[in-house]
Amino acid sequence: MTNPLKSYIDKNVNIEITGKTFFIGKVVDVGLDIIVLNDGEKYLYIPLVHLHNINEETSEELTISDQESPLDDADTISYRKTLQQAKGKFVEIFVTGNKSIHGYITSVLNDYFVFYSPIYKTLFISLHHLKWLTPYNHNLTPYTLSNEELPVNPSNIPLARTFEEQLKKMEGKLVVFDLGDHFNKSGLLKGISNNIIELVQANGKTIHWKSYHVKTIHLP
Fold first, then answer.
1. Which of 18, 191, 199, 207 is the most buried (most CB within 10 A)?
2. 3-state secondary structure the chain
C-alpha cells in the first residue's frame, strides 16, 4: 500500500509534531518512518512517530529555495539511514525541553545513538525521543570552533547495543537525564532492572524512573 503522506511531496504544508511544535515548509521526501521538510532556511528530518498531523498550506505564499540537502539522500530514506548518513556531520537536534542541541552523531546503536555536544559533552539519546534533526552545510562547525578544538573520539565509555544496557554500564556514576531540565533528573544511578531506574539524589532521596521516559543521559 502506498504511503498516503507521499501525496504531499513538493507541496507546502503545515506540520504539528510532539510538544505542540509547528513547522511550515515544502515536503522534500517521505520514507517509511521519516519525513523531510524544507522550511526555506534548513532541512528538517522528522521521525514519523512524532508526527501528529499534516495538511497542505494554501493560505500563505512560501518562498522555498532549492538548496541541496547536506545529507546524501538515498533512493529510499529511513530514520536509521538518516542517522547513519549524518554521522560526523555538524547537526542540530531537538529532543527535550525548549532547547535544541548542536554537535555530532558519533555512533548509532539498536535503540539509541551517541551524540557529542561541545556544551554537554557525550550524550546517549533514545531513538524514540528524537523530534527532529537538521544537518548544516559542510563548512560550519559548532560555535565556530576549530576541528582541533573538537575531539575526534570524545568518549572512552564502552558502548552497549541497547539503551538499557548502556544505562547498566553507568551504574554507580553521577548522571544527568534529559539535560537536567528537572530537579529530579540528576543524581547517582544506583541501578536499573526491568526498565526501572533507581536514582539517588543529593539529599539521599531515591526516585525511580521508567527508562522509556528518559530521553537523554550524560555525565556531569
1. 199
2. CCCHHHHHECCEEEEEECCCEEEEEEEEEECCCEEEEECCCCEEEEEHHHEEEEEECCCCCCCCCCCCCCCCCCCCCCHHHHHHHHECCEEEEECCCCCCEEEEEEEECCCEEEEEECCCEEEEEEHHHCCEEEECCCCCCHHHCCHHHCCCCCCCCCCCCCHHHHHHHCCCCEEEEHHHCCCCCEEEEEEEECCEEEEECCCCCEEEEEHHHCCEEECC
